[in-house]
Amino acid sequence: MSLPNPLDMFDVKGKVALITGASGAFGAVAARVLAGAGCRLVLAAGKASELAAIAAECRAGGAEVVEVNTRPDSETACTALVAAAVAAFGGLDILVVASGMNKVAKIDDMAPETFLAVMDANVTQSWLLARAATVQMKAHGRGGKIVLVSSARGLLGHPAGYTAYCASKAAVDGMTKALGCELGPTGITVNAIAPTVFRSPLTAWMFDDTDNAKAVRAGFLARVPKGRLGEPEDLAGPLLFLASRASDFYTGHILYADGGYTAG
Ligand SMILES: NC(=O)c1ccc[n+]([C@@H]2O[C@H](COP(=O)([O-])OP(=O)(O)OC[C@H]3O[C@@H](n4cnc5c(N)ncnc54)[C@H](OP(=O)(O)O)[C@@H]3O)[C@@H](O)[C@H]2O)c1
Q: Residue 46: CB within 6 Å of ligand 1?
């Protein structure tokens, strides 16, 4: 007698995934993970050359990939991205919102336009993408997986000019919970991965050898039980979990990818 293979729960072969921010650190890892696991991909980003590079890498690994050179910065763009998945592959099973950004400034130095730009990139665009994906996933009736990206800064404040970023990620947490509740009976799960610091263009300065970076890093690491900063690959396991039926009973959940930072 052979036992059922529990790894089958993580099988996403043939699923159709849309990843925004595919030019970025997390977006590229999400593309590699889901392509490697056999998904068909729609990759979206504004930076054409980085987008082409990750698309080529996934294709070289055998994945079917459509690239759309756009940011999800309007209702039209978000609807078009979902439509691209339907046109190319007949539906959409997984949405990964890996686009987002931060602008750091003390509140008295931050222009209101900057605050609104951070809220737009992190909150409004997540909402528009989740909305467009929900319409398609409900119409198709085969469930779906929506994975947003929050941050430990959705839970915790930060003294260095993070009012916009913290507010935006707290809003992503609220959206994740509310939409998880709303879509509970539909078979669509909604969850967020919430990292602390992992290596990316957003955080590159923290990995530097400058005295300032060393001091900031030491202060930060003193609070990270795992004793190191993150790498984009640290998000791979949580992503596969949240994108697969292994997480079918999990919705409205914020999964901290943080080396234990928020535990202490
Ligand atoms: N790195 C960390 O330590 C960390 C920690 C916690 C949370 N996060 C979150 O993880 C997500 C991915 O971050 P990352 O570290 O992978 O950063 P990243 O490498 O900069 O990737 C983010 C991507 O988002 C796109 N983007 C930038 N500004 C945008 C805007 N205004 N509107 C729409 N898209 C925009 C960019 O793609 P295009 O320019 O090609 O469109 C960029 O490649 C973000 O939501 C970030 O807040 C990161």
A: yes
